[in-house]
Design brief:
Number of domains: 3
Number of helices: 11
Strand content: 25-35%
Structural class: alpha+beta
Distance between the termini: 41 Å
Radius of gyration: 27 Å
Largest sheet: 6 strands, mixed
Shape: globular
Helix content: 25-40%
């Protein structure tokens, strides 16, 4: 069982956390609540909503860090009134790992041992290890144009500035030249991400590792990183081997919200839409089953109305037959999908000429799958559409992620 670090509160999606609540011996105080309220007011995020004297979390899972307090929001597909946080923390990390949104292995400097295996620790450790490996290998350099007033002639003389600045100093030369320097966009992005980590509360091992990395990282001018900078870097061929490093840098830089008033309660939020994570997980479990007769696609789009597109979660092509799959991270108490889900499935089938649509929910209450049942045909309509409901077991018998999920979904879909 993972040990929960000090100053860490673990809650579940859709749970309400009120000021004064004590979880695992840690109190959610008014200072943390005010920081979250200010963050909500400024960023208009969907991660949580404000309620009387507290916050109510939504369908986002992950971590919010406020000063020294860390709040882990975990998924819950469990009918228990007291679900096990350690189990669901492990499930979340395994889902993120399988979807390649995180790499769990810790390599490099000192083989850092994480005290809590929290999601933030895993991301920060991966980032610092990758930066350290890059420093050992050697940071990339670029030629940088430079203007200087020197006592030697170097490069090209800038005649207008020479006349303006050195008229009374014939021993000096105002020149333009290039220098082979670490000062370029890639290194500046890494440097700014390291500076953000210096403001975030880290466990002692990661803090020591950060200090060691900063001590040998070249000193560079402050740079205000923009989203377009990453778009540019991702297109440069020489930086393709560092896509993971750039991705984590972007995550660190754009999920940090500094407290500009006191500087004491910086906020860092690393959160994932559980609906999208479930969709991605199901897609990857099905994708590995592809063969000559089975093709798995996701987010295939078709025009719907004016410039709006319609995108089902997954589209299966089995031989000459199509199946539309729509994942829903909802806990149903009975085999009764909402009318909204059914209408959406029907429209998907119509637009993609799929004879069968499948709604996939996590199986919490041990509900039986509903076999494919035809929708009531419209007058003069020859195209028949069937709807099916599947309840998929997220966890296997041993309490870990169900590795057979994709095959179970495929078998249940094709047997109708």
């Amino acid at each position: 069982m993972r040990k929960v670090a000090r100053h860490t509160i673990q809650v579940f999606e859709h749970q309400t956390l009120r000021v004064g609540a004590v979880i695992n011996g840690v109190c959610f105080d008014e200072t943390a609540f005010k920081a979250l309220a200010l963050y909500q007011e400024n960023q208009k995020v969907k991660y949580f909503s404000l309620v009387y004297n507290g916050v109510k979390f939504s369908y986002y899972v992950g971590v919010i860090q406020v000063g020294r307090l860390t709040i882990e929001i975990l998924p819950k597909a469990d009918k228990s009134n007291a679900p096990n946080p350690a189990k669901w923390q492990k499930v979340l990390i395994e889902m993120l790992s399988y979807c390649q949104l995180i790499k769990i292995e810790t390599l490099g400097l000192g083989q850092v041992q994480l005290s809590s295996n929290s999601i933030l620790d895993l991301y920060f450790s991966r980032f610092l290890n990758n930066v350290n490996q890059l420093l050992i290998k050697g940071l990339p350099k670029n030629y940088l144009p430079k203007e200087e007033n020197l006592q030697v002639l170097k490069g090209r003389l800038n005649l207008p500035k020479q006349l303006r600045k050195n008229l009374l100093h014939p021993e000096r030369f105002f020149v333009q030249h290039t220098t082979f320097s670490h000062q370029h966009l890639f290194n500046q992005v890494l440097r700014e991400a390291l500076k953000v980590l210096a403001k975030v509360h880290l466990n002692p091992n990661l803090k020591l590792q950060l200090q060691q990395v900063l001590a040998i990282f070249p000193k560079l001018p402050t740079y205000a990183v923009q989203a377009r900078d990453f778009d540019l870097l991702f297109q440069v061929k020489k930086y393709q081997p560092y896509r993971e490093l750039l991705a984590i840098s972007r995550l660190i830089l754009f999920n940090f919200s500094p407290d500009i008033r006191s500087g004491r309660h910086h906020l860092f939020a690393l959160l994932f839409d559980m609906n999208q994570l479930f969709e991605e997980y199901v897609f990857r479990r099905l994708k590995v089953l592809e063969n000559d007769n089975l093709k798995v696609q996701r987010q295939t789009a078709k025009p719907f109305w004016q410039r709006r597109m319609i995108r089902p979660d997954l589209l299966l092509q089995v031989g000459d037959k199509k199946y539309v799959l729509d994942t829903k991270w909802k806990i149903l108490n009975k085999v009764s999908p909402s009318m909204e889900d059914l209408r959406q499935l029907y429209i998907y089938c119509q637009y993609f000429q799929a004879e069968q649509g499948v709604l996939i929910y996590p199986n919490v209450h041990q509900l039986a799958n509903k076999k494919a049942t035809p929708f009531q045909p419209i007058d003069n309509e020859s195209f028949t559409v069937k709807g099916q409901v599947l309840f998929s077991a997220i966890l296997g018998e041993s309490g870990v992620l169900n590795k057979q999920l994709g095959q179970e979904i495929l078998d249940a879909t094709l047997t109708n």
